[in-house]
Amino acid sequence: MTRLMIYITSLLVFTVSTAVLTASAELHQHTLTIDATDRENWAYISLTKGETVDIADPASSMAWDLGFKRTAVIVNGGASGPGKTGALVLKDISFEDILEAPEDDYVSDTEQIATFARGDGWYTYTGPPNHWVLPNPKVYVLRIAADTKAQPASPYNYAKVRFIGYYENNETKEGSGYISIEYALQDDGTRAFVESVPTSVDAKGKLTTMWAALKLK
């Protein structure tokens, strides 16, 4: 009897703990417009928070993921920051069809070039007469150093990002320097870009039912 009670209690603790861990994971999906009009100062964002953040010392801060200044974009890693963030580009595939982040080949910023400027970069400049900045049809995947205190423990989080505009009004191309991105950030320690399905556990109900069953024995 006692041994059975201990087993059931342990099972409940494990089940509830598993449910809490599963429910805590979240696929953060946002469309975000960043005011990158300042030609002197960077605008920093946190993908987890889905907003611009004020950073006093970007060289030592882990509180930002990407920085923007006009068409320049940096990651918190390599020569740009301490976060060990790296990126790689995926072509000929839609944002929606990327269901899992690649495991390797991520590149951080260097003193010579930012990772978002590699190749033909994230945008195309049309030149005269319009002088438009148009996002290239590609998707970037980011590998971001995770909070080591988070559970479940994982050294990285992963995000997929695409650029969707450079103007305050992208239809009329008015108001340059407003970079719009769409992204999905997975914080459950996996490389999957699919929503975690929380385990539904009615812990209180199960506990009441089990104790009632025990009393009948």
Structure description:
- This protein has 217 residues and is an alpha+beta fold.
- The protein has one domain.
- Helix content is 17%, strand content 32%.
- The strands form three sheets. Strands 1-11-10-9-6 form a five-stranded antiparallel sheet, with no helix packed on it. It has a four-stranded antiparallel sheet with strand order 3-2-4-5, with no helix packed on it.
- The radius of gyration is 23 Å and the shape is globular.
- The protein starts with a helix and ends with a helix.
- The N terminus and C terminus are likely disordered.
Features:
217 residues, alpha+beta, four-stranded antiparallel sheet, 11 strands, 17% helix, globular, disordered N terminus, disordered C terminus
Number of helices: 2
Helix fraction bin: 10-25%
Q: How far apart are the termini?
A: 9 Å
Report the portion of residues in β strands.
25-35%
Tally of DSSP β-strands: 11
- Shape verdict: globular
Main sheet specs = 5 strands, antiparallel
Question: Which H/E pattern describes the elements?
Answer: HEEEEEEEEEEEH
Number of domains: 1
Radius of gyration equals: 23 Å
Mean pLDDT: 82
Low-confidence stretches: 3-24, 198-217
Q: Please identify the structural class as seen in this structure.
A: alpha+beta
Strand order of the largest sheet: 1-11-10-9-6
